[in-house]
Write the structure tokens for this entry.
Amino acid sequence: MRLPLLTVKEVAARLQIKQATVYAWASQGKIPCLKVNGAIRFDADDIEAWLQACRRGAAQAPPSTGKSTWARSEIDRAIAAAKRAVYTARHGEPRPASSPRGKEGIWGS
């Protein structure tokens, strides 16, 4: 006898993750799922097999993303530099001085 299909909410509860993560994984093909009339559902047996594969895979090296370690570190450095540049541009510049009245030019002074 087949078990009933699980909902996103049920899978999220079983995995102790947010429902948004389950939706993201399903759309990325990271977790086995079915689409039934537009609704995402999960076969309990498929989820159990997927979890077992994850457990076995944890002892092995992570799968290659096709990018070398050097390329990933270069990307990480570029992202960090961009964040520093934005932060410095926003927070490193002094604020313009306001007039003592605080309403420069609005009231025709």
In short: The radius of gyration is 26 Å. The first strand starts at residue 34 and ends at 36.
